[in-house]
Queue: 2 jobs
Job 1
Amino acid sequence: MAGPTCSVLHSNAVSAEHVVSELIALVAHARDGEHFTVKDTRPIHGSYAGEGRPFILFSESIDAGTADAIAALTGWYPAQGIGFAAMCNGDEDHRILAELALWLAGRLSGYVDMGGEPDLPAGLPGNAHALPYDTASGWEAHATLLDPTALAAWMRCQAFRMVK
């Protein structure tokens, strides 16, 4: 069963490829193109060490309208999104996904697009923004954008889960 996903929005597409390669080299047991298996996130200050967990890496362009809306919310203009998808849905997959995103967002000075609306507690430190968008069925939903400080705080909460 597929698991949670998220994207790291960043403003420097040139350096991002190098940083992503560094991340994968630090945590992956095996890599085949966009598919990789994570066995140990301790090299990126994570907590997982165990059997290989499958993930997919993807890149997303950000259309000008969405980038403008993000800039209006955050004061920061994204150039690209680098996404991760966990291919399983266990607690460890949610934790690994967050650790990957936290490290990458920190290195790229970016935001993590949670891909939906997690049940964040009030008063979370850092910056959390709700980005509205219209769904295909015509109702408004929100994508939650977290800076590394907010994501790290969310990961310490008992109710922590990435969005699936």
Job 2
Amino acid sequence: MIGLVVSSKKVFERVRKLATQLDERAQKLEQCLTRLSRGAVADRGPLRDAAEDAWNDLHRTLRNKVETGFHLYGTFVLPPARLRTLEALVKEAIAGPGASAHREATARLTVIRAACASKIDTVA
């Protein structure tokens, strides 16, 4: 019984920590994409690099599993097909900061952040 309680506590702590990281990294990517879409043409290189770095951080976090963190058990944060779709949108928004790609990518990031909102724990 004690083992179950300890295990459950660890799972809840992991979920809170993962949700907090997802929210933070999705927000950073949103900000980078917004700066890229509004930035001057001369500034696009560094802005694009920052957006790619932010995507790499978020992508690494999205590949985690929610419940356990173990390789064989748990549920991925996003199903692989959804992750590929998000990746394509983000890469399109980074490559050519057009209004539609930026708007769709930030809308999906907002949905991720909304899903994490109730689990955010800044001290996790």
